[in-house]
Each structure stands twice: as structure tokens, then as C-alpha cells.
Design brief:
Elements lengths: L2 E3 L4 H8 L16 E5 L1 H28 L2 H4 L6 H9 L8 E6 L8 E6 L6 H14 L11 H15 L6 E5 L5 H16 L3 E4 L6 E3 L3 E5 L6 E4 L1 E4 L3 H7 L1 H12 L4 E3 L4 H5 L2 H9 L9 E2 L8 E5 L8 E4 L5 E5 L8 E5 L4 E2 L5 E9 L1 E10 L8 E3 L1 E3 L2
Helix pairs in contact: 2-11, 4-9, 6-7, 8-9
Length: 390
């Protein structure tokens, strides 16, 4: 691996530009002050691979729907009608997601690790911070595989075009107490506003939902309610299904009556499930972009055990063929079913740190960034930007 040291750090860049709000104090320190050098060939390979993987996911999701493989995917039963409806109606637009990949540098083949299709983060770092770091340090600001922000704007424009029967009013929600989520949706809100939406924010705990009337935000000053026809929630669908089943029951008739569009749509839960890794392997056995996946630990070599809806490396273990745990990260998802995926080494630097590529897709592949961490990439990993240099 090759790196370029940033003389002006990402933290300084944001502060000088007055962009502190893009990340927030709790997030700034984790952006590294060096960039990975990526060749044009390597960047193009990431682009081509992610577009191909998305098509494979679409085919696999249709297979799941055709064969009603809800249990294998861990899909909560109270979301099945909403998943089926949103899949069958094209106006329910998948705005964006992020593929996590191993390899792609130093001649290592690219392999799918998983797809964060529903509530992917790392948006400010990928779309804004790494680009601003190029500019601040005097590098060619176009020398990056990064059109994420522009692609988000285009996706929101298409969403509006697909839903002309609705008023382009968008309410964005996160769960209170997660500042990283707030900074991610700020960028999404800017993109939606540029695409022609009237945008507002409210924590999900304060949003008002009616199964017959729609989704509302209350004005704290005069007490009036404003209705929004589009709702973006950086709240996982499985959380809604398991922890707020009454909300799932409200959203289903609203969406199915074409009164509200929820983003990302419910069918992205199919993409989000790690059960899709086995479906993909069954449909595309020995595909060069895939790692073997099974319900049991693989008999040859090491396996990575993942719960179906785990996040940020929680409840991930590396196990041997005889079931011995060699490394693990604990977490809150231990009650879920698991999938086993063949172990693969990440690209490493001379100090032994691992690098996992994250490639966003918003209509098409549009933004590359890297997470730097240990053997299991978790929520302690750092973000590392990149620069294209041949």
C-alpha cells in the first residue's frame, strides 16, 4: 500500500472552511491525516464490481421473494407486506447504500464482505471530507473516485419525478443521542434540498404518525402540525419491526395507499440481511466476487460468523473448521441467527492495520473510502480517504 501524508489535516480543513457541523466533535479525530493512493485501474475496478454486485443483489432478492425465503433471511413477518409492495412499485426508490469489500489494492482480488443497504453511514467523510482534504492540500480535487454528493442529488430528483402525485416535502429522522447519524442526514438533507425538496428534521421519538392521515412534525412554537409526504429514517427497518411493531402497522397502510414514501424502502431489508450472502453463493457458486457462505461453519479453512442484522462489527467471530473461536467482537445482537462466510484477509499496511473498502452506490457506484482497523473492522475503525495517482 502507498500513502500520501496530508500536511493540513482533515480536522483543520473542516475548521478552516467552517464545516465542523459536517462531522461533529465526537467524529473528527477518527479521520486519518493520510490518504491511500489508488490507481485509475483500481478505482475503475471498484466501480465496475459494485455495479455488478448490485445487479446480483437485485436478482437474489427476486429469488427470495419468488420462493418466500423469509425465515432464512430473518425477515420480521410484520414487514413482509411492506417489502413486497415496495419491491413491486418502482416509485419506491433506493436512494443509496454502501458495499463493504476486501481487496482491490496491491493486486488482491475484490471480494464482497456485505452490503449496508438500509442505513449506511460514512456519508460526510466520503462525500465531503476526503474531497475537501484534497483541495486544502493543493492536490487535484478531481483525483478521486467520489461523486457521492452529486449522485445523491440526482437520486432525490428521480425520487421526486417518480412520485409526482406527492408534494416534495421530506422529513428526515434519526434516533436521539447518536450525533454521527445527525451529521450523515445533514448531508442527505442538503442533497434533497438541492433536488427540490422542502426538508425538515425531527427525531423519530417526536414524529407523529397516523395510519390514515400521514406523517407529521409539530411546531414547538405554535403547536401546529406539518405533514410530510416523504420520510427518510436513519433507523433500521428491523428495529422498527422488532421494537416498534405499532409503527410498522401504521406505515404499511400509509405506504400501500400511496400516501407516503419511506426511504430507504422496506425491500432494502432483504439486501441488508447477511442471509443474502448464502443466497448469492447458492445462485452464483464460486463467483470471483463472492466468498463461500453457509448456515454452518465451513469445513475448509476459517469462517467469519455474522448475525443476520449485526452492525459495525458487533457479534462477529472468526472460527476454525472445528468450531474454535480465534477472534470475536461482542455486541447486542447475540440472540439473532448467524451466517458463516469464508474468511479473507484485508489489505494491510506495514504496521499491520487492515483496510476495508467502502463503495457507495446511488444509482451507480459513486464514492470510495476506506476503514482502517484490526482483524475485525468494528466501530473503533478510522476513516481513511484516497487519491487517484498513476
Amino acid at each position: 500500500m502507498k500513502f500520501s501524508k496530508l500536511h493540513i489535516s482533515p480536522t483543520q480543513t473542516l475548521q478552516r472552511a467552517g464545516w465542523d457541523w459536517m462531522l461533529g466533535e465526537s467524529t473528527l479525530p477518527y479521520v486519518t491525516d493520510e490518504m491511500i493512493l489508488v490507481s485509475t485501474t483500481e478505482a475503475d475496478a471498484y466501480f465496475q464490481v459494485v455495479n455488478q454486485l448490485y445487479e446480483m443483489y437485485v436478482e437474489a432478492a427476486q429469488y427470495v421473494l419468488d420462493h418466500q425465503l423469509w425465515n432464512e433471511m430473518g425477515i420480521p413477518s410484520n414487514l413482509i407486506p411492506l417489502i413486497e409492495y415496495s419491491w413491486q412499485n418502482e416509485n419506491h426508490w433506493h436512494i443509496y447504500g454502501r458495499f463493504d469489500l476486501s481487496g482491490g489494492l496491491d493486486g488482491q482480488p475484490i471480494k464482497l464482505i456485505e452490503f449496508n443497504a438500509d442505513t449506511a453511514t460514512c456519508i460526510p467523510e466520503t462525500a465531503i471530507v476526503q474531497w475537501a482534504s484534497l483541495k486544502a492540500n493543493g492536490f487535484d480535487e478531481a483525483a478521486q473516485f467520489n461523486t457521492l454528493y452529486e449522485s445523491l442529488v440526482n437520486q432525490f430528483r428521480e425520487l421526486k419525478r417518480q412520485n409526482r402525485h406527492l408534494t416534495p416535502t421530506l422529513l428526515i429522522s434519526t434516533m436521539e443521542g447518536f450525533p454521527e447519524d445527525d451529521t450523515n442526514v445533514q448531508v442527505l438533507g442538503e442533497a434533497a434540498s438541492e433536488a427540490g425538496f422542502e426538508v425538515a428534521f425531527e427525531y423519530i421519538e417526536k414524529v407523529e404518525f397516523s395510519a390514515t392521515e400521514g406523517i407529521f412534525k409539530q411546531n414547538e412554537t405554535d403547536g401546529r402540525f406539518t405533514r410530510y409526504d416523504f420520510w427518510f429514517k436513519l433507523v433500521p427497518w428491523e428495529y422498527i419491526a422488532w421494537d416498534e411493531p405499532a409503527l410498522a402497522d401504521i406505515l404499511t397502510p400509509l405506504v400501500c395507499a400511496n400516501k407516503v414514501v419511506v426511504i430507504n424502502p422496506a425491500y432494502t431489508l432483504l439486501f441488508q440481511s447477511k442471509g443474502m450472502l448464502k443466497i448469492l453463493w447458492d445462485l452464483y457458486p464460486n463467483h470471483p466476487l463472492l466468498l463461500a457462505a453457509s448456515k454452518e461453519a465451513l469445513k475448509d479453512g476459517l469462517s467469519v460468523q455474522k448475525v443476520l442484522f449485526g452492525r459495525e462489527g458487533a457479534n462477529v467471530s472468526i472460527v476454525s473448521a472445528n468450531g474454535e473461536t480465534l477472534a470475536q467482537k461482542t455486541g447486542e445482537y447475540f440472540e439473532q441467527s448467524s451466517i458463516y462466510q469464508a474468511y479473507t484477509e484485508f489489505v494491510k499496511d506495514t504496521a499491520g492495520f487492515s483496510y476495508q473498502a467502502g463503495v457507495f452506490i446511488a444509482g451507480e457506484a459513486c464514492g470510495l473510502g476506506f476503514r482502517k482497523g484490526g482483524k475485525i473492522i468494528d466501530n473503533t475503525a478510522q476513516f481513511c480517504g484516497h487519491m487517484i495517482e498513476d
